[in-house]
């Protein structure tokens, strides 16, 4: 289980997160929603170890990782696809995928090759292996970014706005691929998402954030989208 206990974070002297409690079970999909600027991205970065936590604990599989650097969390089973995808635009698709392999470190499953399932889930990674990542469409880049995260063989996958700027047909492909990732690899997903149709179709549970705090949570199956839409409107 990935678990946050009373987690707080700040930028300098400005607090951003206030006592966040959140958990993601094994192979579970959880979505985190809220308006822009409420702290969702900061929360993902804090989980990944890319932003310092000023209070509380981050626990992974029962072990505290609050002071563990990002590379250590990656080796422990966390993978992160940031908003904007974070690809190296001047490297090829294949070279971008290879960049995920060092995160395996000395793990027993550290085979230094890209898993076949990545190509099965996202054929674009094979079909455009020699193309520069910066020349791909937004949807193609997102598939490569998720594929790169999966080369680390994670237990928990953190996704920040994976449908942003992507055409509906590609969104559907990404949803189907992530569903297979959960079912076949037993990878859990923590998803920051504004597109409620996607979030509600994919996630088991949801958390709502406002002003750096969790203000509501529940099961997506028991909660109509309309009931949380007010948290996204301007």
Automatic annotation (TrEMBL):
Entry-linked InterPro entries: AAA+_ATPase, ABC_transporter-like_ATP-bd, ABC_transptr_urea_ATP-bd_UrtE, BCAA_Transport_ATP-bd_LivF, P-loop_NTPase
Tagged with keyword Transport: yes
SUPFAM superfamilies named in the record: P-loop containing nucleoside triphosphate hydrolases
Protein name listed in UniProt: Urea ABC transporter ATP-binding subunit UrtE
Residue span(s) of domain ABC transporter: 2-232
Annotated organism of origin: Deinococcus petrolearius
Keywords in alphabetical order: Amino-acid transport, ATP-binding, Nucleotide-binding, Transport
Family from the record: Belongs to the ABC transporter superfamily.
Superkingdom of the organism of origin: Bacteria
Gene from which this protein is expressed: urtE
GO MF annotations, alphabetized: ATP binding
Keyword Nucleotide-binding on entry: yes
Pfam families per the UniProt record, alphabetical: ABC_tran (PF00005)
Lineage, top ranks: Bacteria, Thermotogati, Deinococcota, Deinococci, Deinococcales
């Amino acid at each position: 289980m990935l678990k946050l206990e009373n987690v707080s974070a700040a930028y300098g002297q400005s607090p951003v997160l206030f006592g966040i409690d959140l958990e993601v079970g094994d192979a579970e999909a959880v979505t985190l929603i809220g308006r822009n600027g409420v702290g969702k991205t900061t929360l993902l970065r804090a989980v990944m170890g890319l932003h310092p936590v000023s209070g509380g604990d981050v626990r992974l599989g029962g072990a505290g990782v609050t002071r563990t650097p990002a590379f250590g969390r990656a080796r422990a089973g966390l993978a992160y696809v940031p908003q904007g995808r974070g690809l190296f635009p001047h490297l090829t698709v294949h070279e971008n995928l290879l960049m995920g392999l060092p995160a395996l470190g000395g793990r027993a499953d550290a085979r230094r090759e890209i898993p076949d399932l990545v190509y099965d889930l996202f054929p674009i990674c094979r079909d455009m292996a020699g193309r520069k990542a910066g020349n791909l469409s937004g949807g193609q880049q997102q598939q490569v970014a998720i594929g790169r995260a999966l080369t680390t063989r994670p237990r928990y996958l953190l996704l920040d706005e994976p449908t942003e700027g992507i055409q509906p047909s590609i969104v559907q492909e990404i949803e189907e691929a992530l569903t297979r990732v959960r079912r076949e690899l037993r990878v859990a997903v923590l998803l920051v998402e504004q597109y409620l149709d996607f979030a509600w179709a994919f996630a088991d549970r949801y958390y709502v954030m406002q002003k750096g705090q969790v203000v509501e949570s529940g099961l997506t199956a028991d909660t109509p989208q309309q009931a949380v839409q007010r948290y996204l409107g301007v």
